Amino acid sequence: MSRIWLLARYSVFSLLRDRKAVAATEFAVIVPLMLVTFFGTVEISSGVAVDRKVTLIARTLSDLTSQSSTQPVYDPYLQNVFTAGISIVYPYAPSPIQATISQIYVDSNQNATIQWSRAAIVTSDTASQATLTVSSRNPGDIVTTIVPTALLTKQTFLIFSEVSYLYTPSVGYVMVNGVTLHDVAYTRPRQFSCLSYNATLPVITTPPTCPMP
Question: What DSSP state is assigned to residue 209?
Fold first, then answer.
């Protein structure tokens, strides 16, 4: 009986001292947490990077339009401005880009209205140019509430750009529908008091008069 007891006691202590599988067990527990942390960090970093690019695109569209030396601005010029977004968003896919450029007039009562507006999208990841589309902003639309108070200077004009981008994480099951990143920018016309718009570039001898209703 004593031998059996000693053998059982030895077996129990041997089992308690045997830690060969502890590392494997700890690894199996920690790996999922490490992977979630790793992929989460990568996706958040990518999302922040794309968000900054959306901001940069909005500022670039507004700035390039406001610097136009052609009066009025016309579709080929605006298409080239919109196309700049493809280079800015690289190396991320450009096809979710949707953008709008508008001119806003602030009247003597500080009411802001759309004078003209043009929109564009990037139809595919391999597209070399943006495709012009009809803007959701229409001439006469009142947009006072979206213009910062500091920019509501009476009888002035603003070039207003809007950009949206649907960011879908690489790990699709985390956020199946993605998240829409959006930003806007405002600049004032540089070469002229205002910028009129025409689909094609007409031959003009004098710049058109800016409306001041």
Answer: P
What pLDDT is stored for residue 201 in this prediction? 67
Residue whose C-alpha is closest to residue 116's, from 184, 199, 182, 59: 199
116 token code pair: 């003209």
- 165-202 per-residue burial string, b: 16 or more CB within 10 A, e: under 16: bebebeeeeeeeeeeebebbbbbebeebebbbbeeeee
Q: Measured between alpha carbons, how far is 119 from 50 in angstroms, rounded to an integer?
A: 21
Residues 110, 132: Cα–Cα separation, whole Å: 31
Residue 178 has what pLDDT? 80
Mean pLDDT by 10 residues, the chain (213 residues): 53 54 65 70 82 95 91 90 93 90 94 95 90 94 94 94 89 67 95 86 60 60
Residues 98, 166: Cα–Cα separation, whole Å: 9
3-class secondary-structure state, position 182: strand
**Taking the model in full, what pTM does it have?**
0.78
**What is d(CA 167, CA 96) in angstroms, rounded to the nearest whole number?**
8
